[in-house]
Amino acid sequence: MQINPIDFAILALYLVGITLFGTHFRRGQQNLRDYFLGGRTAPWWAIACSIVATETSTLTIIGTPGIAYGGNLGFLQLVLGYLVARVILCAVLVPQYFQGEFYTAYQLLEKRFGPRIKSAAAVVFVCTRALAEGVRISAIGKVVSVAFGTGERTSILIIATLTLFYTFEGGMRAVIWTDVIQFALYMAGSIAAFFLLLHKIPGGWPTVTQAAAAAGGKLTIFDFAFSLTKSYTFWSGLLGGTFLTMASHGTDQTMVQRLLSSRNERDSKTALLASGVIIFAQFSLFLVLGVMLFVYAQHFVLAIPGGDLDKVYPEFIVHHMPVGLAGIVLASIFAIAMSNASGSLNSLASSSIIDLSPRRGEAGAQSLLRSRKMTLVWGIVLGLLGLIRWGPVLVAGLTIASITYGATLGVFLLGTWNHRANETGALVGFVTGLASMIAVRFLTPLAWTWYVLVGTVITFAVGSLASMFAGGASKEARAPQPL
Questions:
Q1: Which CATH number fits the domain that encloses residue 334?
Q2: Better-predicted residue by pLDDT, 14 or 144
Q3: Structural domain includes residue 368
Q4: 363 DSSP assignment
Q5: What is the pLDDT of residue 120?
Q6: Where are the extended beta strands (E) located within 106-237?
Q7: With 392 labelled, which of 142, 276, 363, 472 sits at a CA distance of 20 to 30 A?
Q8: What domain range is 58 assigned to?
Q9: CA-closest candidate to residue 104, choices 379, 481, 424, 403
């Protein structure tokens, strides 16, 4: 074992402690509203932290420094789109989610179009989320392999099991409040890493800026070239990042579920906007850490196991951080992995139960038991998907989501902006958008940052045309069944 026994003890203590803390929230659960929305009791600041913790992942913590280590700060251009999208969502979609008793994002589609499009969107969501979360869970294996010098699979299964246990017991309330703790922990660990690197690099920050500039502009942020094949430019970041975040935060059940868990519409909007400020600062920190690690490697030996840049930051933590601090930072990386997995488990279960399962007037206790069983099923699925080797984790995770996000966002915007659209047109547009983006992914060199925008435009345009040819007056479908 490469990790110091003290660091291992800190990590083990965290894993046990956060699991027990999460199970505490089982008390008081009586129905689906308690299990899937936390009873709508969480304050806006806790929701904001949960949104950020969900948006962040082990992919982000180890992948983002790796991107800057091998390139520059250009990824930050994508984050600008993250901010713009939040403002648009507060004006366009968030108000609609509070015009009824919604438990999932796809009930809004049912209200607008009907049950078929709701089911179609939910199926795509559960498939996409399961695959994307499998990538996220597998990322923890990269940390484990560096920290312990052992195989990855056993540790991945341990993390998945512990997360499943407290999510199974505590539901959404456990997800939100463990997210708050995990957010505080990984931010504290990242800030500590920043100051430690600053202390270790001879000459401090001036050395960082000089060495980064000499290496070809590693502190460069903006690239105003217009390119459809280059991932990180100002235009792909602003436009692509906006559409990506509109889809992820406005139509993906994992994120929408947090917005629906807010006490009211105002708190939901406040949480979403506040999370944007935090996420910009956070990505800036992670990218700067990557540049600092690059400069640090000019002065000290910093191994890159297998040439995998995702392992640069874990390598620094295990071999170059003081005992105790390394344990805390490792715990913070495990924390965010558990945060992502718990949120995905709860959202996958909620969509499966509410959007895809027949409801026959079950009592609160019966529906609660069925929800817990569904959480267990998805826990097993995610654990197995986490054992797959996916390649560069951050880009892999974002690419998987981006292929399907465009079609989903296109249907939501079709229902919002085209009042003549009908369910048949929406279904045709949705299927066409999905098929088109799969073709784009495998047959064209288009950068993944453009995927959501292109998919949205195709879905909206085809859905509008198909609605015209399908005929029939568009009207609001019946409201979702009460739960």
A1: 1.20.1730.10
A2: 14
A3: yes
A4: -
A5: 94
A6: none
A7: 276
A8: 5-391
A9: 481
